[in-house]
């Protein structure tokens, strides 16, 4: 990865904009504002953006797009973030064209350029000391990207610091109703007679499960586990720590799960630390309605971490609102026992 402002400047051609023609967008949780031309029409934004704009391109059928938002994270490892971004984007079918860093407002801006099918995107995350990190994303059709990319620099040049204000949005009836639970999982580690070997970065490791668990391997580092006596299934993916940030992958996957819901969502965050097997679990449970608007949907995203060189991301999905409470109890108990070690 290249760390230089010269490469970033090489991407950009100065774009002349009059101050009177600019619209200011405040990203208060990040303590920043950016300005964009008033001629840019606001576009429908996604769940992770504060504002989105269509960028008019002369003689082109499809406009470019700029998304402005933020993510909340205490992560300060910029190189680790870039490596994890590369892994996740590649797994999602993107081609990584370039990654680099520049300094903006005395803080590193981590940038990734990637393409998928007919669209190219550059996404940047500004690693200031605030918990909320500014995210800018600019994209267009592949053949038009050379005309769009300079606007990323011109937008960054408008960055200004403003009073930091925590995000306290008005209650939204369709927003997630969030409950956070932190607790230890006491008791002795249970016996786990079902063992599944996996090879991680050339090293052998073993997934362990309670008696009666039915296992179907979906790949070298992916399995599907049916919980004994329940008919419920959990999928698990094993990641090496090197080049992957467990928190980032967990939050990214959980964000993708949120997009499967429509309307009001009940969200329950659970953190189980100091467990008998010395492996920590974090879970995000959601209960609501699928995007189809007709079917109930219940999900759980879970990350299981430890001191070893690997971790587990697990996912559960169900469709019966009447059994959400009991299913959650069964799946949680299962995830609190299943683990990954270097011994069979």
Describe, in plain words, how this protein is organized in 3D.
This protein is α+β, with helices and mostly antiparallel strands and 344 residues long. It folds into 2 domains: 2-161, Protein Transport Mog1p, Chain A (3-Layer(aba) Sandwich), CATH 3.40.1000.10; 176-341, 3-Layer(aba) Sandwich (Protein Transport Mog1p, Chain A), CATH 3.40.1000. Helix content is 17%, strand content 47%. It has 6 helices and 22 strands. The protein has helices spanning 5-11, 78-91, 145-148, 150-156, 246-258, 324-337, and strands at residues 2-3, 22-27, 32-37, 41-42, 49-55, 64-72, 95-104, 107-116, 119-126, 132-141, 160-161, 176-184, 194-200, 203-209, 214-219, 222-226, 233-240, 261-273, 280-290, 296-305, 310-318, 339-341. An 8-stranded mixed sheet has the order 1-7-8-9-10-6-5-4, sandwiched between helices. An 8-stranded mixed sheet has the order 12-18-19-20-21-17-16-15, sandwiched between helices. It has a 3-stranded antiparallel sheet with strand order 2-3-11, with no helix packed on it. Strand 4 (41-42) and strand 5 form a beta hairpin. The longest helix has 14 residues, at 78-91. It is elongated. The two termini are 38 Å apart. Residues 1-20 have low confidence and may be disordered.
Question: TL;DR of this structure?
Answer:
With about 350 residues, this protein is an alpha+beta fold. Helix content is about 15%, strand content about 45%.
């Amino acid at each position: 990865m290249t760390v230089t402002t010269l490469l970033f400047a090489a991407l950009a051609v100065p774009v002349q904009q009059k101050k009177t023609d600019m619209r200011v967008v405040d990203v208060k949780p990040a303590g920043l504002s950016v300005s964009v031309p008033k001629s840019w029409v606001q576009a429908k934004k996604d769940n992770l953006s504060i504002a989105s704009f269509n960028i008019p391109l002369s003689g082109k059928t499809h406009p470019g797009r700029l998304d402005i938002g933020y993510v909340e994270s205490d992560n300060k490892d910029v190189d680790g973030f870039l490596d994890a971004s590369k892994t996740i984007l590649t797994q999602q079918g993107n081609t990584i064209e370039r990654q680099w860093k520049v300094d903006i407002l005395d803080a590193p801006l981590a940038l990734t350029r990637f393409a998928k099918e007919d669209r190219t995107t550059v996404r940047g995350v500004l690693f200031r000391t605030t918990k909320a990190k500014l995210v800018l994303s600019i994209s267009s059709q592949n053949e038009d990207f050379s005309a769009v990319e300079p606007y990323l620099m011109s937008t960054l040049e408008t960055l200004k610091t403003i009073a930091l204000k925590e995000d306290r949005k008005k209650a939204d009836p369709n927003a997630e109703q969030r409950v956070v639970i932190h607790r230890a999982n006491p008791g002795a580690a249970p016996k786990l007679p079902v063992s599944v070997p996996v090879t991680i970065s050339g090293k052998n490791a073993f997934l362990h499960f309670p008696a009666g668990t039915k296992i179907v391997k979906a790949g070298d580092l992916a399995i599907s586990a049916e919980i004994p006596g329940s008919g419920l299934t959990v999928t698990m993916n094993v990641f090496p720590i090197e080049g992957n940030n467990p928190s980032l992958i967990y939050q990214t996957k959980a964000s993708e799960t949120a997009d499967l819901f429509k309307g009001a969502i009940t969200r329950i965050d659970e953190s189980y630390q100091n467990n008998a097997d010395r492996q920590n679990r974090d879970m995000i449970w959601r209960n609501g309605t699928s995007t189809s608007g007709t079917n109930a949907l219940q999900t759980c995203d879970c990350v299981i971490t430890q001191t070893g060189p690997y971790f587990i991301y697990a996912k559960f999905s169900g469709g019966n609102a009447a059994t959400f409470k009991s299913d959650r109890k069964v799946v949680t108990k299962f995830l609190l026992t299943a683990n990954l070690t270097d011994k069979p």
